[in-house]
Amino acid sequence: MDEITPFKKIPLHKYFQHDLEKIKMAYRLSDSIRTDLKNLRAAGDEIELSVKNFYKEKLFPKYHVCDGHIVDSSLKVSPQFDIIICENSKNPVLFNLADKSEIVFYETVYCFGEVKKSFYDKNIIKNFSQNIERSKAELKRERIARNFIETSTSGFHVEEPVTNLPYRNPILSFLFFVNSSAASFDDLNRFLSTSDNRNLPNFIVLLDAGIIVNVNENDFTNNKITINLYPEFEDKPNIWVLMDLQGENNVLTYQYMLILEHLNNVVVSPPDLREYTKNIFDFSISNFHKI
């Protein structure tokens, strides 16, 4: 009998090389725009667009990726975010703005993020964390029960929870730095370790250095890694660590897998357009006349 030849293992990170090169090309171009044209805004936009396009190309057509603002049914609106990922099949877009950014319904949102060329200011994480805190406090959407299972048209509830999280539609946030050479890891550790996890990004991508993630502290002490993708829900001792992935290709690949993990396990809902309509138009009986 002929010997069966085993399948080869695919070097998955190499398949992200082209995506990485496009981001690094944008990084180099942004340097030229900043120094030659003295246009800081355009330099930053070049980086943001390249990272946003990375997610767009990878997640199309199931997910809608844009930059812009999130609005809830009370018409409260978030600050502008560089990356917003929504469920494409649930009509996520309320309005397209002239600068190509969008206003999207909160019910349809899976995650949002900020993209930075470099770690030019130690307050970047603090400012983003404040926006996370404000968004979670101000924007409201109905929580989807832990035992809810989505079908193609609606869904149903089962007896046992299908997740360990308190509800099925938590929102994920992240920061993405292309260059972190100016970062102070002492300052980072000080801020992360003294802040409430609820107000922090779920992870921080340092493309040139690794990914900052939250892990179980006891396991880490015993040379075991248990990553907490949702640090805000952790009741066990936990700490923030830098995961050194030995190369930008690996960093880009792994952070994408973290986002996919979130997208594959979270359920979002379509917007209740009756609520939005009621608040947009503020109808009363005086608006209706016999004909």
Protein described:
The chain is of the alpha+beta class and 291 residues long. The chain has 7 helices and 12 strands. Strands 1, 2, 3, 4, 5, 8, 9, 10, 11 and 12 form a 10-stranded mixed beta sheet that branches. α1 runs antiparallel to α2. The longest helix has 20 residues. It starts with 16 loop residues before the first helix and ends in a 10-residue tail after the last helix. The model has no long low-confidence stretch (mean pLDDT 93).
User: Uncertain spans, ≥5 residues at pLDDT below 50?
Assistant: none
Distance between the termini: 87 Å
- The outline comes out as globular
- State the helicity in percent bands: 25-40%
Give the averaged pLDDT, no decimals.
93
Layout of helices and strands:
Layout: H1 17-36, H2 40-59, E1 63-71, E2 81-87, E3 93-96, E4 102-105, E5 109-118, H3 124-138, E6 148-150, E7 155-157, E8 172-179, H4 185-194, E9 203-206, E10 210-216, H5 217-221, E11 227-228, E12 238-243, H6 248-265, H7 273-281
Parallel strand pairs: 1-4, 5-8, 8-9
Antiparallel strand pairs: 1-2, 2-5, 3-4, 6-7, 9-10, 10-11, 10-12
Helix pairs in contact: 1-2
